[in-house]
Fold these 2 entries.
Entry 1:
Amino acid sequence: MDKKIIVAGGGHGGIACAALLAKAGYDVTVYEQHSREEMGYDWTDIFNGNSLADAGIPMPEKDKCQPIYNMCFIPPSDEMVVRQEDDEARGNDLKMERRDIYDLLISHAEQAGVRFEYETKILAPIMAGDRVIGIKTDKGEFLGDLVLDACGCNSPVRSQLPACCGIQADAAQFEKFYVYRAFYNHTDAVAKDKYKVYMLPKDVFGIAWVADDDDYSDILIGQFNPLTVEEAEKKTEAFRQKNPILGTERLRGGQLTVIPVRQTLSIMVADGYAAIGDSAFMTIPIIGSGIANSLRAGKILADVIQADETQTFSAETLWDYQLRYYNEIGAKLSPYALVKLLLTKITPEQLDYMFKSQILTINELSLTDEGQGGLIDINPELLKKGKAMVKDKKLTALVIRLGADIARLTAVNKAIPRHYSRYGVQAWAKRYDAIFKTE
């Protein structure tokens, strides 16, 4: 097969899709800005292992997987803890070093015939009219029949597409987390609550966690406001005061990154182009986890590409990729973007009240990265419970507004066009995006 596929960036979903396409006979090259050794953050990730099999990727060796501890959630006041009690709650989740995940994906892709060009910084798409025909990089221009955008949240490809494509260029306010994560020595073992998640903690407009492992203590600070390493280290010291297990010797990490915490991109295909993974915002909107979603999207996209009898890779023929992803995953995740927006509008005292009055319980707080099993069951009963228990008028109004927005979103999700036309798709995208507008 002589069709040339360019994967711009080494995102998980892009590599998974590349392997499937190369195995099917396509000429596939991944262009990645980092060296092979630098790919992947210096930290661990938890994701659903079933997604590997879904994408045709072998399971990792057992020694590459680490124990997973149940989470407990702490409101701003620190006056109570909501715990996961079910040891089986994590199901088929895996905890792995990010670089071990990449080793697994890249090795599999190379065996399938994918070529990797490392240390190649992607600068922009190459356009012919409104069609993407390649990428500009610091090593030159590369042309292809299809560009898969796996460059991440701040993709230089997506952000420079022409307006006629109708694809949102950048994440808006409250749509990304600025994240700091580091691993420190631990000073003592913890018998209980090894994985503490803090919701809207003091001086953090977002979430944080402190987790104790066999060899280290792990801290993450994620907030909607931009963050510097110096600010993050000051905030780490505040968490150290109430978590003495968090030592002062940093073993690794200490990095800053940006991850999307929003609904999936309303349009993620154009002529000669498809976004995947963080480039398409395929994460849980509250916590930013999305490896499993990206891997599954890679399989969907590869199937759609191979099924394209015209092999023109137009927006029309690629639309089935977006339709299938939304129906299988994206529509289930989108209400969490509304819940996240609610959290940006309430005070710490109001969040405390939602914990104490059991509007938020472990059922609502236990999240996975695939839109299934353990996620918030956002339904009229939950909203009725919230309305009945809330005494704060402003919070009552916000909960009622949440219910109305979820109802609108459900209707819009069901109305996603079954077939592509630029006018019809962009009109639908405007309705979808409008639901998430901040006031």
Note: The chain has a mean pLDDT of 91.
Entry 2:
Amino acid sequence: MEYTATYNTDIGIRKSTNQDSVAIRIIDTPDGQVAFAIVCDGMGGLAKGELASKEVITSFCRWFDEEFTSQVVEQSFTALRLRDDWNSIIQTENRLLGIYGSDNNIMLGTTVSAILMYRDEFYIVHVGDSRVYELHDNKVRILTKDQTFVAREVAAGRMTPDEAKVDPRRSVLLQCVGASAKVTPDFLKGKVQKNAVYFVCSDGFRHQISDQEIMEKLGPNNVNSMEEFKYGCVYLTELDKNRKESDNITVAAIKTK
């Protein structure tokens, strides 16, 4: 499998700081190319959200650059080891950010959504309400489940999706890294599809745009060059802003072939 990638991040129209953080890695290995993308959305209503998101991104990138590459060279990579590594990063960052917040009398936290594509499999770790999507065969599929109050209520049948969209509690997270006493990440695994686009985004990217608009600008059959790929991310970000999205906006996208 071969990969190309792009990203876009924007402070948006109302925030004074961009509390989102993003990173992408693509490397060549004896097993073929490997792709990794991660987005962390620092809590908008919490102090130092940008610090929380940056710290978690830094830890994951350090893991990829050092631990994961060593596992590839040593042929010691397993899905179980990956899950243990990722869970360890999240638990450590949750503890360290909690200590920092306590020492400085503030509360800070961040979502985490990341995808690793290796040996034609994808692996996802997820905390919060950032998302990972798959665009394939003209279908838009959300691979993650939002860890929010309204998502839980909809799943339990106590709220309709339309009610959830306008509920004042729609941004309330059930957990995040740094501000939760306990964090239980979601882990997912699946098959990487050829001629597909996988993207990770903060919630600000997806609120104001439709699945059809996403497919038109980022769908694999509509992206024939890096310029078009980058333009699709920027176009959708600007569309969000024109529709008065108030949050930071970030997307990291990877195309397969």
Note: DSSP finds seven helices and ten strands in the chain.
